[in-house]
Inverse folding.
């Protein structure tokens, strides 16, 4: 087995060349000749191996990963349980298409999803390849089940890059610019953004609901789609009571409440799903990213009456629920359970909150510290104002990168630094990463 025969890459950050190093730069030149310029890479260090929270690049630099490939490798890189499950499945068979010749792994993943997602009601799932595809399918189910067309989404939302999910996504650059026309019957209403609107959860919900009722009409709405904590939009945690009030309104009006847990789900925020913090039981949940330890897998899970309203053959896809990805998901979920990664995410969250709040007390460019568990962020502002400071975010990310720390920015205004460490990061690695981040923030100040 590959995992046991090789020496560890190490656990401590080590920068041995300038970054990116010469081999990465050569690969980047090769790439420019053949890879579309439409794909951007903020920090083009090319990776050779990973282990836990570390990534080894082609020049021998050992980088600390505080992004987990955008919240995907929550259980870390090169996890023995996943290596073993995937290797075994590759040896057994890699593909049949679930619609042609089914297999147990698909069913077992759906059993796990039924057990883990909020609520004890009867549930059914369908598996897909990407988050965008899961969101598209959740909307298909909601429209069919309700016989209605309108979909309500929120300011700052991110739901994907396919045609429908571009329409559902708020931010124009870079996601939507010149890629229209977009899918119709999508309506955007204000999000609860405590740092910027100062509203309580119920107040912000009343504002959103008033807009829906006056501009769309409750009886036309098939689905209300929301990230319980917004990811790309800036790690925006809605005020307490916002999600619960929206959920109550959807229930009263026959609207399908869809929680997009693609970024926040699977232990990231200290519980299996972020919406559990709000006590809301969604009708449908979309998952991907953390679900399968780096293999492409996504799901729609929810009320069996909705999921089973679809006519036979109405859902599917060649690769959805691919056996290798499904085997990886089963190993990933087992690992999360065995290592109690929700508890680890809560502990990481306590460390992050303490350090980031202390840092915010030292510099005037941090306007807000927010998030839950291992999904925390700082929002950067011009000192003494709430004006977004994207330049500071950029310089902080660059500083971290130069020190061999992978950190990611996000936000509608590009002024948020988000931390998404693998949940298996050690205390020493986390401390090291936070020290670099603190230096970067002071340097930007
Ligand atoms: N819903 C909440 O966060 C993906 C996007 C990266 P896919 N977020 C990372 C990029 O720039 O493309 C995401 C998400 C939420 C849906 C998606 C879409 O998931 O697997 O990227 O399609």
């Amino acid at each position: 087995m590959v995992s046991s025969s090789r020496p560890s890459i190490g656990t401590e950050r080590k920068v041995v060349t300038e970054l990116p190093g010469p081999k990465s730069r050569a690969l980047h030149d090769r790439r420019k000749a053949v890879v579309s310029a439409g794909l951007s890479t903020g920090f083009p260090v090319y990776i050779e191996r990973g282990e836990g929270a570390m990534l080894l690049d082609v020049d021998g630099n050992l980088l600390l990963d505080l992004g987990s490939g955008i919240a995907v490798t929550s259980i870390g890189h090169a996890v023995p349980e996943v290596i073993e499950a995937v290797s075994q499945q590759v040896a057994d068979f890699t593909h049949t298409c679930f619609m042609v010749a089914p297999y147990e792994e698909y069913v077992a993943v759906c059993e796990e999803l039924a057990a883990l997602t909020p609520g004890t009601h009867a549930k059914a799932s369908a598996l897909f390849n990407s988050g965008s595809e899961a969101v598209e399918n959740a909307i298909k189910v909601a429209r069919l089940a309700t016989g209605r067309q309108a979909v309500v989404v929120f300011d700052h939302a991110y739901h994907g890059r396919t045609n429908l999910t571009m329409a559902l996504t708020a931010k124009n650059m870079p996601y939507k610019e010149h890629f229209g026309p977009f899918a119709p019957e999508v309506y955007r209403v204000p999000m609860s953004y405590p740092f910027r609107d100062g509203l309580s959860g119920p107040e912000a919900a009343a504002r959103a609901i008033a807009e829906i009722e006056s501009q769309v009409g409750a009886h036309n709405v098939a689905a209300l789609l929301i990230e319980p904590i917004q990811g790309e939009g800036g790690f925006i945690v809605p005020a307490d009571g916002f999600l619960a009030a929206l959920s109550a309104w959807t229930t009263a009006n026959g609207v399908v409440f869809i929680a997009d847990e693609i970024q926040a789900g699977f232990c990231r925020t200290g519980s299996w799903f972020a919406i559990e913090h709000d006590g809301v039981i969604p009708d449908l949940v979309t998952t991907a990213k953390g679900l399968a330890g780096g293999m492409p897998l996504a799901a729609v899970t929810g009320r069996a009456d909705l999921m089973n309203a679809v006519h036979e053959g109405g859902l599917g896809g060649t690769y959805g629920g691919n056996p290798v990805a499904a085997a990886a998901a089963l190993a990933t979920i087992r690992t999360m359970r065995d290592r109690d990664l929700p508890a680890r995410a809560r502990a990481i969250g306590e460390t992050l909150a303490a350090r980031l709040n202390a840092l915010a007390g030292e510099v005037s460019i941090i306007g807000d510290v927010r998030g839950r568990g291992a999904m925390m962020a700082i929002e950067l502002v011009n000192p003494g104002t709430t004006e977004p400071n994207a330049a500071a975010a950029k310089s902080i990310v660059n500083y971290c990168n130069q020190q061999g720390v992978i950190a990611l920015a996000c936000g509608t205004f590009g002024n948020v630094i988000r931390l998404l460490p693998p949940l298996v990061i050690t205390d020493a690695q986390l401390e090291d990463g936070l020290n670099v981040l603190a230096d970067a923030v002071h340097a930007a100040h």
